[in-house]
Amino acid sequence: MSDRTGSTASYRQRESGYRDKALKMYPWVCGRCAREFTYSNLSQLTVHHIDHNHDNNPGDGSNWELLCLYCHDHEHSKYSIYNGENGSAVIPGEKSPQVKHNPFANLKSLIDEKK
C-alpha cells in the first residue's frame, strides 16, 4: 500500500513528527467546530493539511490545522468527487474515470421529432 493511505511505517513516522509539532504549536481545539480536547480524547484530534499535501510540512505549521475526526472527514469529503457508476471517490488532480453515459445524446433527434 502507498504512504498516502497511512499504511507504511515511513508514513506513520512522518505523521508522528508533524502531529507532535502541531499539538505543541496550537491549542487543542478543533479549528471548525471549536470542540476542546484533553489528554483523554486527544487521539480524536487530527492534523489536517490545508493544501492536502502531506509532504508539505513547513516548520511554522502554516499548512496545518487541528480538526476533530468528524470535521476532518467532512473537509476531505468536500474535495472528493463521487463517480455515480461505482461510488468511488476521485481526488482532484488525479485522473478521473471516463463518463460513458450522456443523457442528452439524442436530444436533437427528440426535438426534431416534435417539430
From TrEMBL:
One of its GO terms (cellular component) is cytosol. This is Putative HNH nuclease YajD. Belongs to the HNH nuclease family. Keywords: Endonuclease, Hydrolase, Nuclease. InterPro entries: HNH, HNH_nuc. GO terms for molecular function: endonuclease activity; hydrolase activity; nucleic acid binding; zinc ion binding. The keyword Cell wall biogenesis/degradation does not apply. It holds the Pfam family HNH. Signal peptide: none annotated. It comes from the Bacteria. Residues 17-73 form the HNH nuclease domain.
